[in-house]
## 1
Amino acid sequence: MSTVAYGEAVAAFQHARIVTLPFEEVLTRLRQAIEAAGLWVLQEIDPQNVLQRGGHDIGPARQILFFHPDLMVRLLQANPAALLEAPLKLAVMQQPDRSVAVRWHDPATAFGRYSKPILTDMGQDLASRCEQIVTAIQEGG
């Protein structure tokens, strides 16, 4: 099995937080914070498991996809092309020093591209909720 080392993770269109909690604790707190923000966890992808099946080894990693059906209805009514922006996703990766990086795209930027006030407002609301979700993991869930 080949071990994959992470490269430098810098992207201007993303947000990131590094936390010193254990990986599984971060996942638990994120799930709780997503629900507390009025959103639903729709799916979790385990890149570690997927890559392992292909003969590669990485540290703990998850992608958490989340949204809400009511928001999806509003999005589709405003502009069906914006369907590509949902669901939202958090990438959670344990770093070599055992800290945990949480990364996400900026919904305000993504939804704002459609030049529709309802989508601009939705993007700003979701950006605020994402910030609350990630802040909550540091505050105890």
## 2
Amino acid sequence: MALYKLNVNGSDHSVEALPDMPLLWVLRDMLDLTGSKFGCGIGACGACTVLLDGAEAQSCQVTVSAIGKKKVTTIEGLSKDGSHPLQKAWIEHDVPQCGYCQAGQIMAGAALLHKNPHPTDAEIDDTFAFHVCRCGTYQRVRDAVKAAGAKK
């Protein structure tokens, strides 16, 4: 085990973990940040998506030893009160159904809007191409991302 210093949601944390422990388990089991979900464990569904220095990353595929000085943002850190434009748009466009994939999708949308506040349908579709939503709310996701971008 080694000691790792992580910046998560703007706060510094020290965790003792094996170097190959996935960030997902550090977040959920050591820092009690359970918004990021375990979906597939192979980086193919997007349920565990977080931001690393503002870029989308699948936390099940990133080891704690690979984080270094990158800033980690989880759904809990996007806004303290649900006031992020994307979170508001998610509700306004009735995106959530079962909710399991929602945190990962919102974080992917946040990364996209950070790079491009006015993405095209094709850019949104590319971003969400591997995000699995078993409830099939893909059109609502697209609408919510566009609405949130319009408010930026």
## 3
Amino acid sequence: MIYGYIRVSTDRQTVANQRYEINSFCQKEHLVVDGWIQETISGTKQAEERKLGRLLAHVKKGDLIICADLSRLGRSLFMIMNILNTCMEKECRVWTIKEGYRLGDDIQSKVLAFAFGLSAEIERQLISQRTREALSRKRAEGAVLGRQIGSRNKHYKLDDKAETIAQMLNSGCSQRKIVTTLVPQP
């Protein structure tokens, strides 16, 4: 069986690009994907918590998992190595498109998988470090970072009804009654 594995981290990301890459690759290699595994979940989640874990439990000797790149499997070297080790124990192959890796059960594949995972983790750490440094510089320059607390323009929904609210309060209305009267209910 040939499986196409697609993972994105958030709903704002699209799986279309990865599916296109896998389909184009398979067309060039004269392969047909028998099953698609597609999920929207963080790569930091363990494989067992993802659809990938169910796939790994299901694969058999000779099966092939194709993914866009190695980082789709996991976010850390340890995680990627565990996944690849599981595949190698089951004699299942993993091919990645962007890096062009064809990992099987031979010693060369094991060494390559280690090197690829290590380089992917180092790159993620470098990106994270550069981001932290840029944020520190911005803070030092006086920039306000993050979500704004409250409203800067100090304009609220009921500002134009301040007199009505005051009158209702003076006449003994409860705050709940004022809200239900003045705020439109969906």
